[in-house]
Amino acid sequence: MKRFGALPDTHHNPVPVPAPVSFPFPTCGDSDSVQRQVQQAAAEFGVGDQRRQSAAASRFRGGMVTNGSTTGRDCRRVANETGMIGAGVMMSGQVREATATAHPNIALVKYWGKSDIERNIPAVGSLSITLDALRTTTTVRFDPGLDHDRFLLDGREVPKMGERVAACLDRVRQRAGSSLHAVVESSNNFPTAAGLASSASGFAALVVAADAALGSGLGRVELADLARRASGSAARSLFSGFAEIELVDRDGAREARTRQVLEPDEWPLRVVVAVAEAGPKAVGSTEGMVRTEQTSPFYATWVKSSAADLEGARRAIEDRDFQALAEISESSCLKMHAVMLSARPGLIYWNGTTVECVHRIRALRDGGVPVFFTIDAGPQVKAVCLPEAVTVVRNELELVPGVRHIIESGLGNGARVIGA
């Protein structure tokens, strides 16, 4: 059993937090007074039995309050008001810190384009799988001594991305009623901004860590909405296995709603990623989407065709029909890149290695191997296959000239807290 539970199913439930642990932090304020206040408050709110209330009160030195019931938000509020830390938050003085991890996802039915840039609503729905071998780890530390947010990626400050991070934190702070600035430290175990959805896992991990650090107790649906506002595909990384972003019309406005379709173990597909170029892409996805919408003569047709692809993919997944999913996914991928190519100037995210990998994968499937390809805004090729085919697919792609390295992955879990 994993130490940290899955994210809650509805927006009414707070994100689960780690079990209490001890940290060698100095206490804040008068210890006897704080301990009495917390134990009394825990009893008033009915959080646990007397033994657990006492344990919760004594653990304030370690910066953790037990959250064992549906009144976790009340417990967090009481702990914060008494100068301690809310469930899922580490605190030294008034510094609040949490760490989360998230995995990138790859869309099988693609989205490309925005229907509302300000709210970052996609032009079409999408359906994806979350990858367990690729990972972003993000620590958010809110500190009253800071007068602005800072963002470090792999130990280096990235001012341009820092602006997007700060905007995302602003939305979390607004929900939490906080004005604290933060230092955000993030790292990826895979190439960044290279067509492997690093922004999806990055912003998914960011909102989960920030929510835990502030003790705001937002649920998965709310967190997915916050993540999507920062990066269109990040909402899907809040969910395990297969996930979908649906577009719905509500009160005359277009809304994006994210839901889980299948758990990873319900259809445990494998993914072999052929990395064809490790560097960042020349044109970012948002810029590319805007250019495509404004200049491609085929953009409207692309948007119109998406609904049928989503319906077919849902049906294929429900029936576990790999061949049908392969045909729909490859078609969606090629249509997206076709509309990119037709922009002015055209967007060419592939290189020669990308094309050769596509030919190898098609040859494998023609030979009876259950595998198909998908490619996002970058040159990396993802070969999706049934578990029994993973070795032959990996071996074949390793032989393609220009492949830098191979990443093999199963389907992963949604974003979650891993430390506080």
Shape: globular
Low-confidence runs: 1-93
Number of domain units? 3
Please give the alpha-carbon distance between the first and last residues: 19 Å
Average pLDDT level:
83
Please tell me the CATH architecture of the largest domain by its name: 2-Layer Sandwich
Q: Structural class of the helices, strands and pairings?
A: alpha+beta
Count the DSSP helices. Answer: 11
Instruction: Kindly provide the name of the CATH class of the largest domain.
Output: Alpha Beta
Major sheet attributes: 7 strands, mixed
Beta strands, count: 17
- Secondary-structure element order, N to C: HHHEEEEEEEEEHEHHEEEHHHHEEHEE
CATH topology of the largest domain: Ribosomal Protein S5, domain 2
What share of the residues does DSSP label as strand, in percent? 15-25%
| Gyration radius, in Å | 23 Å
The percentage helix is 25-40%
